[in-house]
């Protein structure tokens, strides 16, 4: 099987080049912004999580830096950032990644999935596959609600994407374990326990070789059609502790159930019919999953029987006027679905979005 490093053509428009010293370091922490008028520091909002105070945190890896600079939309590359949406829907900078946070070989950090752990700290998937570094699980240490610093607590993943907690176990989707364009993609989900995560001795994940030779923490593997080279993506855990994994290039969702000792019982197909399933979140009040279709500019609610209902969908836009613009993930708070407009453009015939552009936005959709 070819590795994903040999298949980057669709995504070359999103590469970051250079180290943090090349990023704009504008002091934005005390400013507030509307969801429809984000600064360039949020030029590719990606994934969501709640903090301990019901604020919404979101990652922005700013993968569109190079393209936006070339278009003249921004003047400098922006540092990867975590934003916060407060109860009044005002957005502020919660954390900007610093020089000491960068992966030492690549000189970059690429925050994708984000989730609050049972210890109150924030955990983030740092995807390094495209940049030559070692992909990591990061812990943002929190004191009194403030981000203090960042530790590496696990490393050795290929393409870590979503992060989801189930009790004291954390699940990380690995979107590309192996792929051969147009033939197949192998992806998976890792399961780590909280007591294995240490800044002093980060957990080392061994490189995936094949289905008979892999790290013991690999919880599940998936085979998909190879059309994009992207497999397991979004993750969510429902109120009964079931785990849901979206397989991006197949447009499917799988459900994993557990034994009493938290080992896997079985994994079965839960939903199919999307073009490219992306970020997933479960909402307790409505007892439903919410998922974006990145290519189709659409957001769906999926009930616990696997039945999908379209919430909103639109054609190619720049994300203004609350329209979707290559949506990456959706989270629900107080009956409102918040949607990151990741604004990726892969050049695929099935993808509605054609280019990253301004404005930089997060859309809202009432679900009641």
TrEMBL record:
<dbReference type="InterPro" id="IPR011042">
    <property type="entry name" value="6-blade_b-propeller_TolB-like"/>
</dbReference>
<keyword id="KW-0732">Signal</keyword>
<protein>
    <recommendedName>
        <fullName>SMP-30/gluconolaconase/LRE-like protein</fullName>
    </recommendedName>
</protein>
<feature type="signal peptide">
    <location>
        <begin position="1"/>
        <end position="22"/>
    </location>
</feature>
